[in-house]
Amino acid sequence: MTCHELEALRLGLMNVLGTTDRSAREHAEKELEGHLDGPIEGLANADSLSELQRHLDAALVDLEEEVAATDESDPEYDYLRGRLIAVRDAERSLARLADHGDSFLDDLGETHHSLHDAFPADE
User: Fold this and answer.
1) Which CB contacts under 8 angstroms, 24+ apart, belong to 92-96?
2) What are the 10-residue block averages of pLDDT along the chain, 123 residues in total?
3) Interior/surface letters 85-100, b for 16+ CB within 10 angstroms, e for the rest
4) Angle at which helices 77-118 and 4-17 cross, to 10°
5) pTM for this structure?
């Protein structure tokens, strides 16, 4: 059993962060062989945080539907529910990462303005 959503998110995050760890990328790609379609493919190929969030949301909807359609007596049911919890947790973590990035961007803007206040440019 594998968690395609998390492996695809890892690949997409590697794209966004510029990660060059070839072994980590190859491992994730191997886990996703034959499953790169729809939101999973979008996650794996994303190159921005907003794309990651959009595709992860779509993958989460698909996973929620899969859990809802699975009978509780099915041996995979508990695993699917665990997977759903893990993907929801990843969604929250990704949102925090985006929020931190936005906050960092705002801080840089404030620092830039403070610098110009302290050292006005000749006009």
Assistant:
1) 94/9, 94/49, 94/52, 94/53, 94/56, 95/53
2) 88 95 93 95 97 98 97 97 97 97 94 92 70
3) eebeebbeebeebeee
4) 20
5) 0.88
- Beta-carbon neighbour count of residue 103 at 10 Å? 10
Integer distance in angstroms from the first to the last C-alpha of the chain? 65
Q: What is the 8-class DSSP label of residue 49?
A: H
Q: How far apart are CA 86 and CA 115, in angstroms?
A: 43
pLDDT score at 123: 60
For residue 110, give the amino acid letter: E
* C-alpha count within 13 angstroms, C-beta hemisphere, residue 113: 6
Cα radius of gyration (the chain) = 19
* Tally of CB atoms within 10 A around 11: 25
Please check whether residue 43 is in contact with residue 9, taking contact to mean a CB–CB distance below 8 angstroms. Answer: yes
Residues in the chain: 123
What is residue 57's three-state secondary structure?
A: helix
